[in-house]
Write a structure and sequence with these properties.
The chain is about 5% helix and about 40% strand. It is mostly beta strands and about 230 residues long. It has a 16-stranded parallel β-sheet that branches. Keywords: Repeat.
């Protein structure tokens, strides 16, 4: 969505650069043979279908050219894991630990997640489409060429994160925290709803629509110390 920002841009950018979407080309896959995750495990060209990984430890594991469908990730420990050229569909879980992980050329489709930890993570060429994610922790993460499409994000935390070429398309954003975040070429115009709880002063580098500007007027005025009275 590389449209013209015009007066809708925060920070004076005339045009926002579009995010590059992942191009996942999967080879023929083999079904996962079962068993639990292993720390530093290497999973290549596998299909995980309806697999229950709840409570398991896959810290440092690498998933390359993989498909995960309908897998349970409740309290699964995937700290510092790497997901490369993979598609995750219908995964669900509460308290999944993906802190300091890497997602590159990944599609995450119709996820149902709560309290997922992605702080310090690196997301590059990632498409998050559909589903609902509550209390997404992306503090100090780095997002580059990431598209959120048709999903609901409840109280996502981007505190201290760096977002570059990130798009929000037909998303509901509720209670967003942008405290100390750095934004560059972030396109919020396509968001179905936009509610910023903290860090509205960090919107420099983003582009919003005129309607969104009106919706945020009260928050922006409060941030600037402006009293609005009838």
């Amino acid at each position: 969505m590389g449209g013209t920002g015009g007066t809708s841009g925060i920070g004076g950018a005339a045009r926002v650069k579009a995010a590059r979407r992942p191009e996942v080309r999967l080879p023929p896959l083999e079904p996962y043979g079962g068993g639990g995750l292993e720390p530093d495990g290497d999973y290549d060209g596998l299909e995980f279908a309806q697999t229950d990984f709840a409570g398991q430890d896959g810290r440092g594991a690498r998933f390359m050219d993989c498909v995960l469908t309908g897998c349970a990730l409740d309290e699964t420990r995937l700290h510092h894991a790497r997901f490369l050229d993979s598609v995750l569909t219908g995964i669900r879980g509460v308290g999944t630990d993906l802190a300091e992980s890497t997602l590159r050329d990944v599609e995450l489709v119709d996820a149902r997640l709560g309290g997922v930890q992605l702080h310090g993570a690196v997301l590059e060429r990632v498409l998050i489409r559909g589903g609902k994610i509550d209390y997404l922790n992306l503090r100090t993460a780095r997002l580059k060429d990431v598209v959120f499409q048709g999903c609901v994000l409840v109280e996502p935390d981007f505190g201290g994160a760096r977002l570059e070429r990130v798009e929000f398309v037909d998303c509901e954003l509720k209670g967003v925290d942008l405290s100390a975040a750095t934004l560059k070429d972030v396109d919020l115009r396509g968001a179905a709803s936009l509610e910023i709880a903290r860090g509205v002063d960090r919107l420099a580098g983003a582009v919003i629509s005129p309607a969104q500007l009106m919706d945020l007027a009260a928050v922006l005025a409060a941030e600037m110390g402006i009293r609005v009275e009838g």
